[in-house]
Design goal:
single chain; alpha+beta; Glutaredoxin; two-stranded antiparallel ribbon; 5 helices; 19% strand; globular; disordered N terminus
Length: 221
């Protein structure tokens, strides 16, 4: 029988599978076989309206997803106490913002706090500064009450659980949603997790984000 922490971790991974099935009808990366050259992973196509929400950002301002109509949105789910994956996602957000140049003014980078033990204003402010995002005017680290956040996590198929080996941190379904100017889901970007594919098979998250955001903005293929 699985121990409780391992069982919760199992459900997080199951949540990722549910996400890929739920957003489904998207592109699955082909597995290389024989002499074929596999195309690098660059996200899974989505369609349909992105579920709305209203939370409070690290500046103390009330922010709704609908506030960003007319802009492209990169939406992640992060733990302000995280010491591994989340800081890297934040780094890729910062790099993507710099690489977008003037186009960055037409993009909003959002993240929702998934850690119920670190959901106070000071938590999202501290993470914003620690991760080097305080100078990004288009960055919003969002928090809210447990029920508010849980409702958002549910609609975006994000599962969470305490990390078995890091007290106070949360393991959760990874990935970034790209939402267009009309509020439509366009892409879900994560790390390839099947088929034993090497990490080098996918470009850096920041590169994929820049490509997909520019595409959404009308400046890419």
């Amino acid at each position: 029988m699985l121990r409780p922490q391992r069982l919760r971790l199992f459900w997080v991974l199951s949540g990722l599978l549910a996400l890929l099935l739920a957003v489904g009808c998207g592109e699955a990366a082909p597995k290389p076989s024989g002499g074929e050259v596999a195309q690098p992973y660059e996200g899974t196509k989505l369609e349909g309206l992105a579920p709305g929400f209203r939370l409070t950002d690290h500046r103390g301002e009330s922010v709704a997803l609908s506030d960003f109509r007319g802009k492209a949105v990169a939406l992640a789910f992060l733990d302000p106490r995280c010491t591994d994956v989340c800081p890297l996602t934040a780094l890729h957000f910062r790099v993507a913002g710099e690489a977008l140049g003037r186009d960055a003014d037409r993009v909003a980078f959002l993240a929702i706090d998934v850690n119920p033990e670190a959901d106070q204003p000071a938590d999202v402010v501290a993470a914003t500064e620690k991760w080097g995002l305080a100078q990004m005017p288009n960055w919003h680290f969002l928090r809210g009450g447990a029920q508010e956040v849980e409702a958002v996590l549910s609609t975006y198929y994000i599962a969470t659980a305490p990390k078995p080996d890091k007290a106070g941190e949360v393991v959760h379904t990874p990935g970034v949603y790209v939402i267009d100017q009309k509020g439509q889901r366009r892409w879900y970007i994560s790390t390839p997790m099947e088929g034993g594919l090497p990490a080098s098979w996918a470009p850096p998250l920041s590169d994929i984000l820049v490509k997909r955001l520019r595409e959404v903005l009308g400046g890419g293929s």
